[in-house]
């Protein structure tokens, strides 16, 4: 998994939370996610009450940059708590959540009715917390100077399977007579689900698309082919904007302002964390991590390239969390 650059970390959180506050912290990165903790016996001197324990989560690759940044910074505050986060996609994360394998599940879409039913059947009560806004971003290769502004109808024409081999000239006769190369999040991804809902409207995605739960694979694919098009979360675009071009949709480009205002429609969306209620009550470390998440998610979302919620939304979340203790 790639290491995320924090765009404005110092300004967002202040030097008291920087990783340097806990020089003994280590991080292990695997294909499944990120685990942080400390090998030191001495807790970091942060003035906070020190806890021990473990917390586990999984889910959306879109939410992952926010959570991974929070996990890393939380390690400087509570070095005795080990927080592990996998990235199986929204759907894959909910599968683990339903199976009782995780304390929380990251999601780039609201939970589905069938997932709610399975959680109820499993006897798992949960609470939904919204942590940020995202703008699902359609991208093309920088050499593509013809499809930088698309309408929703054109996106449908491009992405919906119709049995043909699609060329750019099929969308507009003045565009190149070249086959379109597609890159899409995998079907376990909440980003895929959201695109399916608002663009495909339940129709099948083009069969020729390369699917991956790893958004970095999608970035590399589009960056390497002038005829490629793809989509993923806004933060992944910002992290790679030197090698990608963001497409305007119905005349509106994805920016912090257009995403927060809802002007970037229909591709603006909220991002969520779903927390297991019993774990919040029984695992003090998890409760503390969720409290830290809601207190810092806004600044961290901005730091990694997403859009924070209004402050009152985080306060509402904290009030809800307090009621679950």
CATH architecture of the largest domain: 3-Layer(aba) Sandwich
Low-confidence stretches: 1-32, 38-46
Quickly give the structural class.
alpha/beta
Helix content: 25-40%
Number of domains: 2
Q: What is the average of the pLDDT values? A: 87
Shape by Cα distribution = elongated
CATH class of the largest domain: Alpha Beta
Classify the beta-strand content into a percent band: 15-25%
Measured distance between first and last alpha carbons:
33 Å
Describe the sheet with the most strands: 7 strands, mixed
CATH topology of the largest domain: D-Maltodextrin-Binding Protein, domain 2
The tally of strands reads 14
Calculate Rg over CA atoms. 20 Å
| Widest sheet: strand ordering | 1-2-4-3-5-14-6
CATH-level-4 superfamily name of the largest domain: Periplasmic binding protein-like II
Number of helices: 13
The arrangement of helices and strands along the chain is: HEEEHEHEHEEEHHEHEHEHEEHEHHH
Please write out the topology.
Blueprint: H1 9-13, E1 25-29, E2 33-38, E3 53-59, H2 64-77, E4 81-86, H3 89-98, E5 104-107, H4 113-121, E6 126-135, E7 137-140, E8 149-150, H5 152-159, H6 168-171, E9 181-185, H7 190-200, E10 210-212, H8 215-223, E11 228-232, H9 234-239, E12 245-246, E13 248-249, H10 256-261, E14 268-276, H11 277-282, H12 284-304, H13 311-324
